[in-house]
């Protein structure tokens, strides 16, 4: 089903030779589609979710005359040419200094309007509201009808990608003794699991490295790679930082909090 939908978009791209985008995908779906994106990289196929560190992303097909080959270049292009972006951003304000709304509050209220999950991308929550990525075709409807999250009234407007406010994430530096930077060791240490539980999470498809499903527990992490355990959080592996007297490796991670 996923591949069929992506191939339909690609055929439309071939007919029109203009920017064409799919809906948004979660990490597991992106992993399924990764080979499709690699196969069509020559046709300008890129995963993109609105900003460089986006988790929910769609596939965008780009004419080669644009000369775009990376997510960063694509983000820059859409900032300079917002009318070309197939995704829209809802700038949501609560009118309160801190309404206490969480990601789940915004998502739940969108789903209650009948919006399908694949039509929404990342939801960037702040004290005063949120910025929410959606497919462009549903943005006008939401600007008129997305008026409440829980009991909190919302003021919603559609903004161009140039007005996106991505703040630096809150990170906690962790220095951990591990036998080696194998994936199962890292998952166990960062998320306080037994190594067996970490291996089970990997086998169940719950662990992702750089937004792609990681299937091998003996995969060795490289510095700068992003590690995600679905339902538990994410971290950046910074690299080794020394060795203990007993021969264990000290590794540093920045965990998102």
Automatic annotation (TrEMBL):
SUPFAM superfamilies: Alpha-L RNA-binding motif. It comes from the Bacteria. Keywords: RNA-binding. The lineage of its organism: Bacteria, Bacillati, Bacillota, Clostridia, Eubacteriales. SMART domains: S4. This is RNA-binding S4 domain-containing protein. PROSITE patterns: S4. Residues 181-238 form the RNA-binding S4 domain.
């Amino acid at each position: 089903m996923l591949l069929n939908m992506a191939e339909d978009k690609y055929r439309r791209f071939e007919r029109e030779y203009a920017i064409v985008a799919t809906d948004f995908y979660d990490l597991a779906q992106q992993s399924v589609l990764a080979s499709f994106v690699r196969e069509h990289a020559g046709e300008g196929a890129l995963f993109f979710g609105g900003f460089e560190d986006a988790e929910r992303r769609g596939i965008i097909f780009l004419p080669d005359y644009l000369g775009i080959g990376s997510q960063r270049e694509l983000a820059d292009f859409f900032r300079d040419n917002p009318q070309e972006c197939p995704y829209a951003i809802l700038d949501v304000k609560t009118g309160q200094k801190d309404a206490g709304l969480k990601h789940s509050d915004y998502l739940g209220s969108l789903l209650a309007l009948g919006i399908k999950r694949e039509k929404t991308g990342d939801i960037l929550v702040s004290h005063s509201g949120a910025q929410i990525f959606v497919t462009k075709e549903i943005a006008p409807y939401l600007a008129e009808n997305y008026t409440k999250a829980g009991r909190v009234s919302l003021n919603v407007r559609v903004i161009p990608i140039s007005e996106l406010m991505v703040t630096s994430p809150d990170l906690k530096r962790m220095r951990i003794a591990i036998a080696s930077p194998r994936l199962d060791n890292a998952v166990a240490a960062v998320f306080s699991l037994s190594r067996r539980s970490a291996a089970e999470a990997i086998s169940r498809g719950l662990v992702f490295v750089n937004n792609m499903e990681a299937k091998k527990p003996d995969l060795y992490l490289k510095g700068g790679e992003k590690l995600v355990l679905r339902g538990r959080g994410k971290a950046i592996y910074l690299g080794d930082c020394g060795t203990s007297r007993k021969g264990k490796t000290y590794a540093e991670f920045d965990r998102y909090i």
